[in-house]
Amino acid sequence: MKGKLIWLLSAVTAASCLTACVPSSETNGITLTLMGKKSDLNKSYMTSIFEQYETETGNKLNIIAYEDAEFESAAMEQMETKNAPDILLHFHNADLAQFDVENRFVALNDQSWTADLTDSARAYCTDKDGDLLGLPFWESSVSGCYYNKTILDDLGLRPATAQAEFDVLCEALSETGYTPICWPANGCSWMMQFGLDPLFADDPARLEQLNSGAINYADIPEVTGMVQWVSDAASKGWFGQNYLMTGWDDISPALASGDAVMTFIWDTWFYTDFEKDGTYTIDDFALMPVFLNTVDSGTYEGGNLNMMMVTKSSKHPKEALDFLAFCATPEHYNAAFAGVSTMSCFRGQTTNIQSKMVTDASASIAANERVSTASSQIIGYSAEDVAESFNEMFRGNITVAECVAEMDAKRHAAS
Amino acid sequence: MKNWAGKLLLSCLMCAIGIAAVLTGIVYFNYMSEQINQDSTVHLEEIYGQVNRSFGAFVEENWGLLDSWGENISMMQEDDSVPAYISEKKETWGFSDFYFLSSEMDCMTPDGAQSSIVMDSDWDRLLTERQPVMAGERLPDGKDVTVFAVPVAHREYQGFGYDAIAVSYTNADLAASLDVTAFSGKSRCFVIHEDGSVLLSTQNGGNVFDNYLTYLDAASDLEEEQFSQMKRDWHEGTSGLIRCHFQSVSYCILYQPLGYQDYIMLCIVPQSAVSAGFLSVQKTTANVLLVVFLAVGISALALFLIRSSSQSRRSRLELQYRERMFDVLSGSVDDIFIMLGDAYRSVDYVSPNIERLLGIPVEEARRDIRVMEKCAVGDNVLIPKEELDAIPLHGSSVHEYEYMHQHTGERRWYRMTVYHMQIQEMTKYIIVLSDRTQERQMNQKLQEALTAARSANEAKSNFLSNMSHDIRTPMNAIVGFSVLLEKDADKPDKVREYTRKITASSHHLLSLINDVLDMSKIESGKTSLNVEPFCLPELLEELHIILLPQAKAKHQDLRIHVQGAPPEQLVGDKLRLNQILLNLLSNAIKYTPEDGHIDFLISELSQKTPQYARLRFVVKDDGIGISEEFQKHIFSPFSREINSVTNKIQGTGLGMAITKNLVDLMGGIIRVESEPGKGSTFTVEMSFLLAEQDDTEQWFRQKIHRVLVADDEKDICTDIQRLLGEAGVEVVYETDGAAAVETAVHAHETGADFDVILLDWKMPGLDGVQTARSIREQIKRHVPILVLTSHDWSDIEDEARRAGINAFLSKPFFASSFWLTLKPMFEAEETAAPESPEENIMQGKLFLVAEDNELNAEILTEMLHIEGAECEVAVNGQEAVERFLHAEPGHFDMILMDVQMPVMNGYDATRQIRSSSHPEARTIPIAAMTANTFAEDVRNAIDAGMDGHLAKPIDMAAVRELTAKLLRRQGAETPAQDNKGGSP
């Protein structure tokens, strides 16, 4: 009931916007319909680019914004009608698959602006067939192992470059009384996907096998290896004593106080959620790859990007592609992302703020970054389900093998 | 106590042994630990010394190889040959890269590529000092390598002038050669510079330590002095070993200089890993010792337990045996034993006989002793807890309670003795319940006996007092009137008055004495019965005759009722029965006021034995009654109820006691029901042997066929009709006199005269006398007419006889009385010589009186003389015998024989007379004269051959009656002899 009400309000809002955006008889501009999540569409760089477009082109944008919870179903329903939007703003994740991407969206490989995309951004927006599905226009961050370099320096330690070194590092930190890794098991669920990303990003065939049901996690030794390593790390105390109670709000105090030395998170978190008044500041932190025993050299997860896709049923396909080109123009995107802390999606992106941590680790990132694959590409993947299985294992209720089996079972159930 | 001390000593000994063993173990293990530490340190030093040497040899070897390869390369004519050569060596020795180093600190690989090796200060050592060096490098690709370089003579290779050559090994490869597996892989080995910077590490092939000194300083608990000493050692190139902790884990840190440059081999091994082998031995030793100790301990404990168990079992068995034995013993006695733990909260023991003695299941009592309260008769049967607590230690308390058996309801008295004791420092109460019922009953009986004795004594005292008074009263009268008699001898009226009073007092005195004698006889157990056939109606008639005047004097209505048809001829002691009934009836008359009523009821009870008849005699009056309290003692001797009425009535208090004893003697029962002011009812029941029927009834059946009865009480008429009807006599009755006359006349006129007419005296209309007169007037035929009355007929006897009444019959009507009354009439008719009722049998008779007491003899002589008889007195039995033997036959008519006489008593004298040859030896009537009137006296007299018995003092009426009886009998037996008295 609540959902329907929201949908109705959204529709009314959209209708109002539509009415407002409908070009008057005095102008020659057209109106493009753009559909997305309300929270996404309200980002400053989004509203900025919309404003630039309308101002400079005289065209109008009919923004259809859905509440986050209603978005997927409402968008899908809308796509089935003749009133399908011209442009859909959507993450390249598993939810997108249900939109029949191949038949519904225009491939953008031949667009002029594609050369300006960073490798990671392009990789993120490309499907398994190599088709560029959309224009990435989003803030992004690098997920990796952020560590307190000050503490390491004080201890005569240096960051790890390999899984073995990471293990030594954890052990050395543990010996000195620090909690090596802040592992927020209570309500946080993103850590495991970092370990899974390289397994499927580096081997798309394996991903296809997994999604087709040909194999399971249990058939992939690295998955079991990851679960085993996490289990061992927890047993050794590398996550501290109260990691099962550690949640989102506990990460910042742990790192800022120096109780914990490392955590698996993304750089923008430091600008949005990290305490400013702790013992340690952002400047004390640095970035190294996440080591979860799936790849020896570790891995980074690239940002999850919202991309603007042109529907094949668009009433104004040319104008829609022009809108994307408008957004991909350095003048426009630099204006939109001016002062925004984010990784760059465009090579010519200069006005955004990139963290020093990311910059310092750029070589390592370049060598070890993977597109976010697990959460977006594995059908039925639920970070919460995986975290729940891990927590059951932490509590001693299930074994490592049972944890892996449960991850499979939940994935199958959700797919 | 001794056993307890032994156990304490044993326990102390075992504790001491245990403590000694533990202390020995501690000392031993401390010693062993110290030794192990020392040994493990040596072991550690040896191992890493060997690693050091190996690594040193590896370094020296590489430097040597480089020297050799440098020479060889310098001798190569063509530079093109160098890469192949190097490649071959690389494959052989496993280094990763080969470098040509210039004095300008440039480097080139064999393939001509420029490279970058920093080596920092080692360049000087290499190129200036011309010393081989070993240095660490991090390559651009992030790999850590170790470079071995040696100076060579300046040469060129592919135009690159070089002064040194070098090879590099990846640290991962080198670490593998340094890895030490002796400590289960738990050791870390570093090659570090003196400043702590790490050249390479063996740890899992990776290294995250930039400077281990920094890490040690931050992570370990090394003291500053230790830290300084270690750095001095490093600086001075000396080896050392220190121990520290990382997060409470003990580590051994061993450092040894490599011997070139400032390199130090630093080994960090967990103490547990260092001592693992030794600890294993120590642990094994400890385990063995522990096992041995445990085995010994367990064995000792087992032995102890077995012994304890055995002792405990023996103790338990002994306890069970004792308990069983105690149960058996207590089961056979009537004492209940109880042991309480602490007050009533716990019960340690209850003897099983509690179930037998009190009906309480022993298990129930053992659960809660307060269950005994169910047996309470009074308020309580258990000593109250407060009193229990108040008993001092080692003291006791005695109580007596009455308990009621739960099943039988029997009540018994128990003496409860409670002992307060301390057993094994625990408070115990031992309760012994002893059955004291018999003792109590005995005491009670003794008390009762004592009371009875006191009462009897008191009664006897009272009796003596009373008797003294009672005897003195008539005696005083006799003495007093005797004096007056002598004084007034010439005054006939006075003499008669005095004589009458003396006689009355004498009779009263005699009655007292007889009662006393009777009681004395009864109490001494010498009373016996004189059992012989007797006629019940006769007895009742005698009673009636005796009592009727007394009742009449008090204007009382004395009635005798016969219910049913009790047998008339019985066998028993008529005299005693008479005495019993007379006592009861006399008392009834005595204690019933004037105009009162006394009913005497005779009835037959059912009797199973056909030879016996059980009769009930009930004497009921409406007199003063008897109090309930006195009813309990009424049959006790010397007891009299004291009240305003009884005080005026003379009595000894022996009458009812004698009656009761006589009833008991005759096998009967007597009971009394009374209510003061309303009267009393005495009931006597006793059995009599039925006497054989004589032929009287048969004889009369032939003489009498029809009888006319006239009585206003129809029940009496029907009774007579029934009784006579059984003898075949036709009875016609009328309920008034006139009808009787009419019936009699009518019968006469019709020729069906009645053989006997029986008339009630007092009838409405014509009474019996008037009816008789009328019948005589109208019927001339002589028909015996009898009057049936319950009243004294003496006042009307003359008138009745004149009216033609032949005889009187007392009510109640008995057939036997009827026959006996009629028999003389019919006999007279048959003989036609009726005896004059005025005949004096005593007239002219001569008695032989044997009496030793002169006074008695004189009285008797005078009294016989008054009666017209004479007597000769013999002073003893012998004289009496002689007088009789010497007397002519017919000289004496009768002998009156005193029993107790000097020379020869009356019995012996009689026997001699009877056994003599005198013609009248068998027939002469002999009557005993005794003060004893008991049955045995009578029987003794008869046994001696006497014919009758007269009680002293002699009553002339009795003498007259007995004389007539005996002489008549003698006459019947010896008709030929004429009597001297004859008829007047």
Number of domains of chain B: 7
Strand order across the biggest sheet of chain A? 2-1-3-10-4
Beta-strand percentage range of chain B: 15-25%
CATH superfamily of the largest domain in chain A: Periplasmic binding protein-like II
Look at the structure and give the mean pLDDT of chain A: 89
Number of individual domains of chain A: 2
CATH architectural group of the largest domain in chain A: 3-Layer(aba) Sandwich
How would a crystallographer describe the biggest sheet of chain A? 5 strands, mixed
Q: What's the name of the CATH homologous superfamily of the largest domain in chain B?
A: Histidine kinase-like ATPase, C-terminal domain
Report Rg of chain A. 22 Å
CATH T-level fold name of the largest domain in chain A? D-Maltodextrin-Binding Protein, domain 2
The first-level CATH class of the largest domain in chain B is given as Alpha Beta
Give the N-to-C terminal Cα separation of chain A: 26 Å
How would you characterize this protein structure?
The complex is a heterodimer of chains A (415) and B (984). Chain A has 415 residues and is an alpha/beta fold. Chain A has two domains: 191 residues, Periplasmic binding protein-like II (D-Maltodextrin-Binding Protein, domain 2); 194 residues, Periplasmic binding protein-like II (D-Maltodextrin-Binding Protein, domain 2). Chain A has 20 helices and eleven strands. Chain A has a five-stranded mixed sheet with strand order 2-1-3-10-4, sandwiched between helices. In chain A, strands 6-7-5-8 form a four-stranded mixed sheet. Chain A has a two-stranded parallel ribbon with strand order 9-11. The two termini of chain A are 26 Å apart. The N terminus of chain A is likely disordered. Chain B contains 28 helices and 33 strands. In chain B, strand 32, helix 27 and strand 33 form a beta-alpha-beta unit. The longest helix of chain B has 74 residues. In chain B, strands 17, 18, 19, 20, 21, 22 and 23 form a seven-stranded mixed sheet that branches. Chain B has a six-stranded antiparallel sheet with strand order 3-2-1-6-5-4. The radius of gyration of chain B is 74 Å and the shape is rod-shaped. Chain B is of the alpha/beta class. In chain B, helix 15 runs antiparallel to helix 17 and helix 21 packs parallel to helix 22. In chain B, 47% of the residues lie in helices and 22% in strands. Chains A and B meet through helix 8 of A and helix 5 of B.
